[in-house]
Amino acid sequence: MNDSNNRRFNVAVVGATGAVGETMLSILAERNFPVGKLVPLASERSAGGTVGYRGEEYVIEDLAGFDPTGIDIALFSAGGGVSKEYAPKFAAAGAVVIDNSSAFRYDDDVPLVVSEVNPEAAKLRPRGIIANPNCSTMQMLVALAPIHRAYGIERINVATYQSVSGAGRSALEELARQTGALLAFQDADPRRFPVQIAFNLIPHIDDFLDNGFTKEEMKLVWETRKILGDESIQVNPTAVRVPVFYGHSEAVNVETREKVSAAQARALLASAPGVKVVDERKPGGYPTPVTHASGHDAVFVGRIREDLSHPRGLNLWIVSDNIRKGAALNAVQVAELVAAGG
Amino acid sequence: MNDSNNRRFNVAVVGATGAVGETMLSILAERNFPVGKLVPLASERSAGGTVGYRGEEYVIEDLAGFDPTGIDIALFSAGGGVSKEYAPKFAAAGAVVIDNSSAFRYDDDVPLVVSEVNPEAAKLRPRGIIANPNCSTMQMLVALAPIHRAYGIERINVATYQSVSGAGRSALEELARQTGALLAFQDADPRRFPVQIAFNLIPHIDDFLDNGFTKEEMKLVWETRKILGDESIQVNPTAVRVPVFYGHSEAVNVETREKVSAAQARALLASAPGVKVVDERKPGGYPTPVTHASGHDAVFVGRIREDLSHPRGLNLWIVSDNIRKGAALNAVQVAELVAAGG
Prior knowledge:
CATH architecture of the largest domain in chain A: 2-Layer Sandwich
Oligomer: homodimer
Distance between the termini of chain A: 10 Å
């Protein structure tokens, strides 16, 4: 952002009481976003309560009754249904909407932006709406975009290890509750997920589609192509929920047009925006959700090594905080692009 | 086994107090293995204690002072060092050693046997030693061998999700202890693993090698080729420890010489020995470690779907009890092959 530009922006945060909404507020403060008026919004149920921002308490307003006139930037993270209903109203009133749901991601006239990857796309927003990608796509592309630009990625095979925070606050509570129950020799009693998540894995995120993939898996396919602007990239994903609170991890194999050595990839990623390489080939010399992801902004990349099964294959282990870079941080970074006149 | 053959076998279980050793004893009983004399063996530290078998207590003898004369079959699961020292002595005394460690797996004159995949290999054992494969290879090949035979596998990309029981009893204790500590707001205090495993992932199992892969990963490469008897199969593995007590899971992508549809793969696997297909494309319609692996003999396969990124690619989600099929059960099944005159 241009520090000499003293303009301030009235910011609405829709879904302010959620895991992502709360993090959006703290990241706006951390990054000194030029907030004029701040309006936290939520459903009627949460309205009247308060959220903290820069040491002050803000009363949460009811989204349904709110008049968006005068809002410059609206950060939405309250689910697809809420976005579909209210984002167009905010946009019609003149706000730029940055939407964290999947409601508009695949619309041709809505840009899908990762701030380090395709910031220029944020400028073209005919509907006044910019979509924030899915968390697992976001972190994967921060790491893969530099490789794609330098060597050309033809194919991506990815297996995810996704934390429960990606499924919201109720999922965090479910993992904590089930873990406590099982340690006390009680039943796990699954509620939020179809089967027990504590000490277990669930190879199923979002709905199943006709091709046998889940919607979460197809997001990795659709969003990768849209963000990199290359429909020829082949993506084959498996998405798995793991009993981790915060931080998504991904075992990624890419095949490039031009051969890239592990050393070349390491050097390229070491200077890539938003990426931190942690790759020492010794105990602890790799990123993990607890040691690297939780509360950190970067996308961490380790286990960089050449594919044993393909002459132009490369393996990466990618870890990031799905609530920060995977959602709230990128939304605020996109707001910064908008504020900077983008 | 031939039921009309009334011969009984004197069986030694080396490492009888370990997670795998205990399961070997219960599987010998479950499957009515024709045990004559049973001798549980362990280190001096455990000697003098007892283990249960068919409702009776057996005193554990000290391996170091034990004379193997008269033992017909010795099941070893006490680590590579113990196997290297004692397995040849048991074999020299006339026993057939079935060894669960990696000490002899890559020796040309030691067969590496998965009972459903290459049972004939158990007959050729010039050193009197048969090796049991690594748990992650074992379950993968029970599912992949039928596909390889019918369609020819050229390449395997696998990301594992391995439970802590694969690292032994101390690892089970570490996950339980750390989980309890963290729920009580205390430090995880990593001891058994280099970083916290509770609510975390560790992309590192066994030592790092010069090529950047871990030894656990290379076992998947070396053992797949040896067991399938095909050095042309390309394998590219990522091995990750997950906070699950029992059951290993694997996201597997294979490329075959001939195209195999998801329906063909499902039909083939439905009748494959040792495999159970759980693949309903609805919530809960897939195997998970807790719902399917723990205490079950089969290798469970779900999420069967055609690769989006390759015309002859196929995806599978493979789950099995790493202590049973991945170790103790296969060892007993190999003992059955030996007992049947193999």
